[in-house]
Amino acid sequence: MLEIKHLKKTYPSGTRALVDISLALPRGEIVGLFGENGAGKTTLMKCILGFLRYSGEITLDGAPITRENIDRFSFATCEHSFFPALTPEAHRAFYEAHFPAFRKKRFAGLMDFFQLPMKRAVRGFSSGQKNQFEVILALSQGADYILMDEPFAGNDLFNREDFYKVLLGILEPEETILLSTHLIEEVQHFISRAVLLHKGALAGDVTTLALEEAGRSLMDFLRETYHYRPDRVSQALSDLTDKE
């Protein structure tokens, strides 16, 4: 289990990015991480991976995350973490050499599904193809926890819908996904749990099963949690069009 206890992150500028976050992520969940821009979603993921210094505690099965267990995590980011000058074929060889649990069959299947060329340098891919390849690497590494930060940017609707279906079909019961995205309505039937951040603090944490049993949608839950005002747009338009 991944456990986060009293996690805080303040940048040198004084900006508080995370405020006392405590969260437990058992194996086998697909968790949606939601929040407005600047809510702390990317910062939370980078703290888990050790990319940023923080105060608090993050453990995996009771142990700190170090070089000894960091290979149990993979990361798909829209900032990209692949080697642009290498081909997918060269990436496969690199991952096979460095990650003993690398899933060769999954890698080949996903490359075929997205119809990505194996022998072209990744820097020659389109933006959407680069994001697809980033996700393929994260899913094929053999990690227990797969962190995805806006992984579907640049992909069309039909590619995304097909990918959700494929992902549900290939995941093993013990694999966990933490997915940060603004495409809430698209993923609400795909995730099993929703974690909400607001201004760096934990604003909500609910399973989709609990919402379903209560007769509520994920969008309803988000609107209530964030105190969304349905008249916000009409009020703004009224203010902007009022004659002086």
Q: How would you portray this structure in words?
A:
By secondary structure, this protein is α/β, with parallel strands linked by helices. Helix content is about 35%, strand content about 25%. It has nine helices and ten strands. The chain has a six-stranded mixed β-sheet with strand order 6-7-8-3-9-10, sandwiched between helices. The chain has a four-stranded antiparallel β-sheet with strand order 2-1-4-5, covered by helices on one side. The mean pLDDT is about 90.
Fold topology:
Layout: E1 2-10, E2 16-25, E3 30-34, H1 41-48, E4 55-60, E5 63-64, E6 73-77, H2 88-98, H3 104-114, H4 127-140, E7 145-149, H5 157-170, E8 176-180, H6 184-187, E9 193-198, E10 201-207, H7 208-213, H8 218-225, H9 232-241
Parallel strand pairs: 3-8, 3-9, 6-7, 7-8
Antiparallel strand pairs: 1-2, 1-4, 4-5, 9-10
Helix pairs in contact: 3-4
